[in-house]
Design a protein that fits this description.
about 80 residues; mainly alpha; two-stranded antiparallel sheet; 3 helices; about 55% helix; globular
Length: about 80
């Protein structure tokens, strides 16, 4: 069953999450941030036992695919330089 309103709400939610991550990484500057720190700062580091951190990691992966963020060798996330 398709529900256009549900789709719109989900897309807005993802856009808001990506905006929050972008804002955090802007504040972090060249220091970058770890997945755990991003997740805890945004209150989205939940998950079932042994799988905490999947929510922020998934958002970061989407943003990485869009070319917005990148992860360095120390596993710190940064805004991608354009």
């Amino acid at each position: 069953m398709e529900d256009p309103k549900a789709y719109q709400l989900a897309q807005k939610g993802m856009a808001d999450l990506k905006s929050a991550v972008y804002r955090l990484l802007t504040t972090a500057g060249d220091n970058g941030m770890r997945n755990v720190d991003i997740g805890l700062a945004l209150g989205i580091y939940q998950g079932h036992k042994g799988h905490e951190g999947h929510i922020p990691r998934t958002v970061l992966a989407i943003m990485e695919g869009e070319g917005t963020v990148k992860q360095d060798a120390e596993k710190l996330w940064h805004l991608a330089r354009k």
